[in-house]
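Hi there, hope your week has been kind to you so far. It would help a lot if you went through both lines with me. No rush at all, and the record is pasted right below:

***
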Amino acid sequence: MKRNAEYSTVNDSVQEKFFSRVWKLITPYWRSEEKGLAWVLLIAVIVLSLFSVGISVVLNSWYRDFYNALEKKDLAAFTQSILYFCGIATVGILGAVYRLYLTQMLTIRWRRWLTEQHFSKWLAHKNYYQLEQRGYTDNPDQRLSEDLNQFTSSTLSLGLGLMKTVVSLVSFSIILWGVSGSIEVFGITIPGYMFWAAFLYAVVGSWLTHVIGRRLIPLSNQQERYEADLRFSLVRVRENAESIALSNGEPNENQRLSSRFGKVWSNYWSMMGVQKRLTFFTAGYSQIAIIFAFVVAAPRYFAGKIELGELMQINSAFGSVQENFSWFIDAYATLASWRATCDRLLSFRQAMDQNEAHVSAIEIDHAGSSLSIEGLALQLWANRQLLNEASLKVAAGDQVMLSGRSGSGKSTLLRALGGLWRDGEGHIRLP
């Protein structure tokens, strides 16, 4: 049995259709019988996410007043700013708590619905048997459990995060454009130059992040498969403990487990190398971003064109714009893991769809009290012919012994009688 063989790989044509196939995986829940509550929860989470953006915009203005009060040593304004901050923080905390709670509620409901749908599809048309026997997919248990869990949580997290990022980017871009002023470079006046500085900083960083970390996607996919293979082997030892003990098969099982873990080890080391290089870059990128705005805005401050409060407001707005532009950088590892999860789920569903589309030429009827076989031909998957134009009739009460050398097709014939073997043609009538 080829347990590790994928029924179909994600080739170039599938890559082009990736997002359309993922869309077909996402949308059914939002059209299902649970769509009413699902949309209510989603809208509530979106509103709370936008509310958190509003809190950030209000805090940006607060920075200006707070630092101006410090610069002027105005105790009354300082005290008022502190009280104002406490009110903003309280409201912001309540919004963050309920945003998380409702997101988790939506995630688990979506996961439950998807899991039930996949359970039904996996158990229908003998998919659970055919996929296992033919080695169509590896570790369906992992895809039905861990992959569906990660798919729902990551899809909501990335989708809501992207939407929040876009709204925040628009809001703070307007603020940054208004407070940054203009600068003259080589005789050319650049309006809103801090906005363009944030944009260029993030674009260059995003491109370099992709160049450095793009190998994470295939490595994450392989790691999921190797981990699942190892768990399957461990469960196999538990299920066959008595047979292994009676035959003293511990050395063979140890060799098999060590081989499976060796793949986990090797692939993980490869992931570590990519993540190390990616972390070097992203950590440096984040640290430089802390002072980058001050360095760029410092000439206008030392020229007396802006006050300390305005400088701090510019830094806060720049940080928000740069952070929003850099969403791809911060989410890259999550995106890589999400892509690997989607690939595994899509290949699993494709294997089930193709198995369901495979119509057997063996006709099976249930009628009368006898067993009869007419013109039965059976083939192995490697196109090896086992039976050809075989016929048999067994009346009620007859006793028949089926005999033959190993590999001659005894078990295959019984599978055909049970409707499990599809490669062949002929007619079978069962009592």
User: Anything to note?
Assistant: The beta strands are 182-185, 188-191, 361-366, 371-379, 385-394, 424-430. The first helix runs from residue 12 to 16. The mean pLDDT is 83. The CA atoms of residues 189 and 300 lie 14 Å apart.
